[in-house]
Specification:
By secondary structure, the protein is mainly alpha-helical. The chain has 4 helices and no strands. Helix 1 runs antiparallel to helix 4.
Length: 65
Amino acid sequence: MGPKTQLCSTCHRQLHALFSESTLAQGLDSLESIRANPQMAGYLKWVRRQQGPASFRVRRSNDRS
């Protein structure tokens, strides 16, 4: 992702909880690829339905790729 791409802190933490640095560098290097990823798409669908503050607890995935 380029320097102009910004994610909210919760989405940024979720990315790192789901994926290793090498996976992010190799295939999830744009907002389009992040949104298209099934794991992240599920998270984004869930987070859009939430009300209240935009900060949620993030836990590392057991099957982190």
